[in-house]
Amino acid sequence: MALGVGAQTSPDTYWVQFTDKVNTPYSLDQPEEYLSERAILRRLTQGIPMDELDLPIDPQYIGAVLSFGEVYLVNKSKWFNAITIRTADSGVLEIIQSLPFVADVRSVRSYTASVPDGRKFGHLGSGISKGGGTYGLSFGQIAMMNGHQIHELGARGEGILIGVLDSGFEGTDVLSAFDALRDRDGIVLTRDVLVNDGDVYSDHWHGRSVLSCMAGIVEGELIGTAPMADYALIRTENADWELIIEEDHWVTGAELCDSSGVDVINASLGYTLFDWPEQDHAYEDMDGQTTRVSIACGIAASKGMIPVISAGNSGTSEFHFLSAPSDAINILSVGAVDADGLPADFSSWGPSADGRVKPDVAAMGLGTYGLGEDGTEVVPINGTSFAAPLVAGLVGCLWQLHPERTAHDVMDAVRRSASTYALPQEQIGHGIPDFMQAHRFLELTAGSRELDNEGLRVSPMPFTDRLEVRIPIGIDGPIWIEISDLSGRGVWKSSAFQGSGATIMIVDPVIGSLTDGPYTLRFVNAEWSSSMLVVKAH
Length: 538
What we know:
Structural class: alpha/beta
Largest sheet: 7 strands, parallel
CATH topology of the largest domain: Rossmann fold
Strand order of the largest sheet: 6-9-5-10-11-12-13
């Protein structure tokens, strides 16, 4: 709510929104002044232009606000062109509100009594997983997504930087499960945006348990999904309360990931109900465009990162819907299943308020194996908090295999590979991803350019047992034709044809035996690709 004249305040926090970046000393022509080399390269590789969101806030605006009385900077956001401040002086707030470059001042009340730790993160429980080989207890949760096969291809996250936003990483600097990570200097950045004390290793266990699902190695018991990736560990969450200011902290953490060159963001945090009920989000807010944290998550994706976000653990609550920012647009939100692939009852439900499939995919979140609260043992842990990092790590491995592809390409391949892609469900979305299928899809479409369908003719429509295909003139070299169901799984593939104006008759008993419904017909050669939706009907 906007503050009015005479607002009564105690030491508290406020969001100050600025009007513009007109006089900023920074330039889009010199991004190296505010973005790392990795961040710039990520944009260049994916063809993402610099824009005003990349420019830091005008430091004169910040300085002017902080010059009034006892006003302290908590955080700042270049994406929203705003800062979070702390002050107890209502008169100062009124002066700040009146500044010509200040658009708005809003309370993000931050002080309240502590809440039980379990209120936010639930309790670590018990579960069953199938052990196997060097993976030990963690084999089942990785093999469920064919992640072990991705590892066998030599992809374990090398060269990928994963940013983890969480409540703290207690003991990660000393626990043996992270010896290998520390020995290779795999933790490249740590930041506590709550208190800025530089220490993320003393504050809470949750982020460390999340990290163990990606980076932990305990011989014969646990291997994370991306054990060779590099990590940025950023504390954005206070375990003692639930207040909307934590969304501001999350935004700061996501911007830090961006400017540092992070490729994949894992955030096992979600926001719906708060200690102050007037701050609560409604289901109608879960449209990816209303809450500040979800807007920021969408911006992170637009900057070429892949945010992988836990859907939430409210499946058995009255408010059983997904939490922000898992409703964000063009990201991967993750629900939870058990060791048999069945939805976990606590996993929050979709779709988003605007009707998009949510969660995007699901992974093992009931009985996931990782480090427990004391960090000394590998135990079953429950929550979409632990499903999300399983996916995030494998997303990093997949991207390692296809570094030329965009974030959008990788996310699209993961969704297409999932078990219920054609018939999404409210708790698991497109279902359990198959990372080998995603890898093959990216291989199939590697180095291709999309061809406009003009000149490409397919008949009859709908088809029964045969298809007649006319290839446009000017397409040289051998052509492969593939029919896939809507989950992305190939159901028929041709040998090579010659193109450039050819008419190809496809007659095969396999085509005639397909069940009725929609399919994707895809054409691929060394230089181009094209696809169209076709329908089978008797």
